[in-house]
């Protein structure tokens, strides 16, 4: 690829990453509807569970989404009583998003769904191949300047995260390989 030759799209990693992202997003949206949520809202609940409390700006960065898009989802989740905005302890201009009791209960169900979706997506792939895939995708992400610090959404409860996000061994919940 470094010699300047033209390449068919299926020979480029971006093609496959984009195709995978679109397929996973469609499947996530479909499964999240079981909880009357958009896929993005399901992921927001899970991120809030792991992060505990976070500002709208931070949530936008974590989700790699535009501020107005995250705001729309936060407003929707707040209207349904799943999250609340609380004052930042040191900067009154900032509101922190946190899960309510109902949000924590919903996240428990959402997290189970995300785990099932993960298992479905990696069915037939050995742990070694999956770890190699995560390593390669992490390197590609670093190469293009993307963030690496997020844990897999379904994998680690608070207090059990790996020392360095983005690198981990095994896939919790995997029963094959």
Walk me through this protein's architecture.
By secondary structure, the chain is mainly alpha-helical. The chain has a domain at 9-125: Arc Repressor Mutant, subunit A (Orthogonal Bundle). It is 53% helix and 7% strand. The chain has helices spanning 13-32, 39-51, 56-63, 67-79, 101-122, 127-143; strands at residues 53-55, 83-87, 95-99. Strands 1-3-2 form a 3-stranded antiparallel β-sheet. α1 crosses α5. Mean pLDDT is 79; it is low at 151-158 and 160-177.
Write the layout of secondary structure elements.
Elements: H1 13-32, H2 39-51, E1 53-55, H3 56-63, H4 67-79, E2 83-87, E3 95-99, H5 101-122, H6 127-143
Antiparallel strand pairs: 1-3, 2-3
Helix pairs in contact: 1-2, 1-5, 2-5, 3-4
Strand order of the largest sheet: 1-3-2
Query: Could you state the order of secondary-structure elements as H and E?
Result: HHEHHEEHH
Measured as a percent range, the helix fraction is 40-55%
CATH homologous superfamily assignment of one domain: Winged helix-like DNA-binding domain superfamily/Winged helix DNA-binding domain
Percent of sequence in beta strands: 5-15%
CATH topology of one domain: Arc Repressor Mutant, subunit A
List keywords for this structure.
single chain, about 180 residues, mainly alpha, Arc Repressor Mutant, subunit A, 3-stranded antiparallel beta sheet, 6 helices, about 55% helix, globular, disordered C terminus
Give a nutshell description of this structure:
With 177 residues, this protein is mainly alpha-helical. It has a domain at 9-125: Arc Repressor Mutant, subunit A (Orthogonal Bundle).
């Amino acid at each position: 690829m470094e010699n300047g030759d033209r390449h068919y799209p299926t020979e480029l990693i971006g093609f496959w990453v984009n195709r995978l992202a679109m397929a996973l997003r469609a499947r996530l949206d479909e499964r999240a509807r079981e909880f009357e949520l958009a896929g993005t809202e399901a992921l927001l609940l899970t991120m809030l569970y792991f992060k505990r409390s976070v500002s709208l700006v931070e949530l936008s960065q974590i989700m790699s989404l535009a501020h107005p898009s995250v705001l729309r989802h936060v407003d929707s989740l707040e209207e349904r009583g799943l999250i609340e905005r609380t004052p930042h302890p040191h900067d009154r201009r900032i509101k922190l998003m946190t899960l309510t009791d109902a949000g924590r209960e919903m996240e428990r169900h959402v997290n189970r769904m995300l785990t099932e979706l993960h298992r479905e997506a990696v069915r037939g792939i050995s742990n070694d191949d999956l770890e190699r895939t995560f390593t390669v995708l992490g390197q590609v992400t670093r190469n293009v300047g993307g963030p690496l610090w997020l844990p897999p959404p379904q994998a680690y409860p608070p207090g059990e995260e790996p020392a360095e996000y983005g690198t981990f061994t095994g896939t919790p919940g995997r029963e094959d390989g």
